[in-house]
Design goal:
This protein is an alpha/beta fold. It folds into three domains: 26-331, Rossmann fold (3-Layer(aba) Sandwich); 338-493, no CATH class; 497-597, no CATH class. The strands form seven sheets. It has a five-stranded parallel β-sheet with strand order 7-10-13-4-14. Strands 1-6-5 form a three-stranded antiparallel β-sheet. α20 (463-493) crosses α25 (607-624). It is elongated.
């Protein structure tokens, strides 16, 4: 390391060391009461502190104009919480349920005496969500009794006979008692003068086991209640009686997590006897102390998570009813929105050392499509690809249909959707494998499809699932990618594609409007009046299978949709109505298909074709985000798979 680098590092160390840290409070209980009189929020409950900490980052309702608003089932109050927005995608409904739980618990509703359980399939984000929730407390501070292993609320010092008076003066409710250790110190060291009891301010810290505790799953042989409530110090049993608080070592999860959070990882992997402490910790807000000491007050948020199989096994035992009654379950399904699923992999790749690898356009989309389709249930209303597009908010009308399919109808017939299928971990392993297997500095949709096929064959145990997944990749996704690729190459080939598409759109809209209202059509250039061009409209509509009597309904729907957008002041573009956009693009592509095929597949090109090919590659690079190598790779794939001669 150079001298300059060493000097810079030393400078950073000195700056950090000399940085003035906020001075934390240290005083007596009487001093603390003055703080509470000025600001009653200094004495928050654990649930209220956590709720307000997350809320302080910002929250907003989904606006009705938001493209994703209509995708949430009507009647659900889904909000966007800023604290989660850059970490979790497509999980707004789950997050809103968690925040509703905390809101009710903060108001001392029944939820304050419940365990919050996140239940869902592997890799759905349960543990990551809990971890992020715990992190919300890391920057928070709280006041507690000094040298109390339970870090109890200083207000618990107030004798019960005076609590009503204190509550009236301070404007808060006092609930709970000091721990046996704090009681012993109050009586023996301070002669019962609780106004002199030392109070300090501390920050929450998971690493320091201060206000945040984690209980890992344990087998029957290793689990011990001391993990939850601490133990007795055997070395002191010869010195003090069994009921003497001085023998207590209150270092269990419910001691450490008091005033903050206790997390149970894979909670139902533990034996039922191990979980009995939850009964009193929730309903009575008290936990047993080790040995023969009194019960200890507990004020904390109990978070837990498990998979569906463990939940079903646990609830099937009727002897577990008491614990089940103290659990509020929130299901955490896999994401079913394509755009949100893509964001998950973008985030994960950007946080890895693979971020410098070029990922060709549509690569992550292809991987995400497979993940989501594996999680979906079959429907009689549409095929699985159409369902994926509808869930993603696309305007889709299946060929031969006139009316759009209602997203809520699809969700109601498959309410358990998203609770099984391919996990995000599986997809990331496939992406990692594709990158590792590549001899180049890029991966393409073709390489990710190959990697997914390999992973399915090697990792999926169920033969039925394996067959279904391979069909999704090799048939549905492959055909969809060829369609995407065909459109993209044709767009790159056609000069002024957007302008041509908009012209076709405007012309179709004018004709459809006149047809629907039974009026004459006025040519935009010549101003000549004539009948709507039936042949032109049909040539567009046939691209998406609109024929026969369904034409009238389609034209009416298009016209009504566009008028509604105009009334709202929206800009009208050829992309405004999904089915018409698809028809126009298909029309444009079919008109240049033969030329594009020659340019793409030709091995010996003339000067004009070489020029057109170079322009096409340049457009793919500049407008679509390919590199020269990845553009050539997808063109080679296209030449072997698109527009085959019969």
């Amino acid at each position: 390391m150079s001298k300059d680098s060493t000097a810079k590092l030393l400078n950073l160390i000195e700056k950090q060391r000399n940085k003035k840290k906020k001075e934390k409070f240290s005083g007596t209980f009487l001093d603390y009461l003055q703080i509470v009189q000025k600001d009653s929020t200094a004495a928050k409950s654990a649930h209220k502190r956590l709720y307000e900490s997350i809320l302080s980052h910002g929250v907003e309702k989904f606006d009705e104009s938001d493209a994703r608003y209509s995708r949430f089932k009507s009647g659900t109050n889904v909000k966007k919480y800023e604290y989660f927005s850059n970490e979790f995608f497509g999980m707004e409904r789950v997050v809103s349920k968690v925040m509703n739980f905390l809101k009710s618990a903060a108001a001392k509703g029944e939820e304050s005496r419940q365990v919050l359980l996140l239940m869902g399939p592997v890799g759905a984000g349960k543990s990551a969500l809990v971890e992020h929730i715990k992190t919300a407390l890391e920057s928070e501070t709280f006041y507690h009794l000094k040298d109390d292993p339970q870090r109890g609320d200083p207000l618990h010092l107030v004798p019960r006979s005076l609590r009503k008076d204190f509550e009236k003066i301070l404007g808060i409710e006092i609930e709970g008692d000091i721990s046996p250790v704090a009681r012993y110190r109050l009586l023996e060291d301070l002669d019962g003068k609780y106004e002199n009891y030392p109070v300090i301010e501390s920050t929450f810290s998971q690493r320091a086991r201060r206000g945040i505790a984690v209980v890992p799953p344990m087998d029957a042989n290793s689990q011990d209640t001391s993990v939850l409530i601490g133990t007795e110090d055997i070395s002191k049993l010869d010195l003090y009686p069994e009921d003497d608080p001085r023998i207590l070592s209150l270092n269990g999860a419910f001691n450490v997590g008091n005033r903050g959070i206790v997390e149970f990882v894979e909670i139902f992997k533990n034996e039922i006897e191990f979980l009995h402490i939850i009964l009193t910790a929730t309903q009575e807000k008290r936990i047993p102390s080790p040995g023969k000491n009194a019960m200890i007050h507990f004020d904390g948020v109990i978070l837990s998570h498990c998979n569906e199989a463990e939940w079903n096994r646990f609830k099937s035992e009727h002897t577990n009813e008491a614990i089940l009654d103290r659990i509020l379950k929130i299901e955490v399904p896999y994401v079913l929105e394509l755009d949100q699923e893509i964001k998950i992999y973008e985030k994960m790749i950007n946080r890895s050392d693979f971020k410098n690898i070029h990922i060709a356009p549509h690569t992550l989309k292809i991987a995400s499509m497979f993940a989501i389709m594996s999680r979906m249930k079959e429907s009689q209303k549409c095929d699985i690809l159409t369902k994926l597009k509808i869930y993603n908010g696309d305007d889709v009308i299946e060929k031969g249909r006139v009316k759009k399919i209602d997203i809520n109808d699809l969700k109601e017939e498959a309410y358990r959707e998203g609770m099984s299928g391919i996990s995000t971990r599986f997809i990331m392993k496939s992406i990692d494998s594709a990158i590792s297997d590549s001899d180049t500095n890029y991966i393409t949709p073709m390489s990710i499809m190959d990697s997914l096929i390999t992973q399915v064959k090697e990792q999926i145990i169920s033969e039925d699932d394996k067959t279904r997944y391979l069909e999704i990749i090799q048939k549905i996704i492959r055909d969809e990618y060829l369609s995407i690729l065909e459109t993209e190459i044709a767009k790159a080939f056609i000069t002024a594609y957007e302008e041509q598409a908009q012209t076709l759109f405007d012309s179709y809209l004018d004709n459809a409007e006149c047809y629907t209202t039974n009026e004459k059509f006025e040519d935009r250039v010549t101003k000549e009046e004539r009948d709507p061009d039936e042949q032109f409209m049909r040539s567009i509509e046939e691209q998406i299978g609109i024929t026969g009597s369904s034409r009238d309904g389609f034209r009416s729907d298009v016209t009504a949709y566009m008028f509604s957008k105009m009334r709202r002041g929206d800009v009208i573009k050829y992309t405004s109505y999904g089915p018409l956009k698809e028809a126009i693009e298909s029309y444009l592509i079919s008109s240049v298909k033969d030329i594009a095929r020659i340019v793409t597949k030709s091995k010996t090109r003339d000067d004009e074709q070489r020029k057109k090919h170079s322009e096409m590659v340049e457009t793919l690079i500049e407008s679509y985000g390919y590199t020269e190598d990845s553009a050539q790779a997808i063109l080679t794939y296209a030449s072997n798979n698109l527009w085959r001669d019969s």
